Amino acid sequence: MFLKREFLATVKKNKRHSKRKVESKDLRQGRANEQKVVKQVWSLAEPLCGSEGLELIQVEYQREPAGRILRLYVDKPDGIKLDDCVGVSRQMSDILDVNLADVGPYSLEVTSPGSERPLAKKEDFDKFKGNRAKIKTYQPLNGRKNYTGVLLGISGDEVSLQIDEQIIALAYTNISKAHLIE
Domain segments of the chain: what residues? Predict the structure, then answer.
């Protein structure tokens, strides 16, 4: 009887483990599909934004509790207005209906970057030097993946961030997410 319980516990444990592997594989495929959609939307949205005098800051495509969200962050030098977002949203909606027909249902959201503006391009790290930022990396550096400090800029492929009295150099290619903070 004892051996039977032990065997069943082992079988249950192995089933959970294999389920995690499948979920992990599905998650990786989902991320790859999200990245593909982001690239496709970027190539469609950037020319439209440029023709409207706007800068496309970032494109996000992610799952949220209410369903999938396709979010475009746009800006312009003298500030973004609601009419700018509405105009881009209407035009992009028509473009995406044709080009993303196979993606499935999603909600389109066009918004300003706000006070926690994403830092998505290399030049953003120089443009906003002197501002406080939060940076997350793909791989840990000295056991850490999350950094908050003052942006010092970018040199080559290294982003410099001052945290208290220490200056940290992070490889641009290792940055998974970065944004300004107040």
Answer: 29-111, 122-180
Q: Is the CB of residue 74 less than 8 Å from the CB of residue 85?
A: yes
Residue 147 CA to residue 141 CA, distance in Å, equals 10
Q: Among 127, 161, 125, which residue's Cα sits nearest to residue 141?
A: 161
Residues 41-56: what's their mean pLDDT? 95
Angstrom distance (rounded) from CA 83 to CA 43: 22
Residue 178 and residue 136: Cα distance in Å, rounded? 6
Q: Which residues contact 22 (CB under 8 A, 6 or more apart)?
A: none
- Classify domain 29-111 at the CATH superfamily level: RimP-like superfamily, N-terminal (3.30.300.70)
Going by pLDDT thresholds of 50, 70 and 90, the confidence category of residue 155 is: very high
**For the domain with range 122-180, which CATH number is right: 3.100.10.10, 3.20.20.80, 2.30.30.180, 3.90.1170.40?**
2.30.30.180
15: closest CA among 23, 3, 26, 4?
A: 23
Residue 7, pLDDT score: 37
Round to whole Å and give the CA distance between 7 and 181.
53
Structure confidence at residue 49 (pLDDT): 95
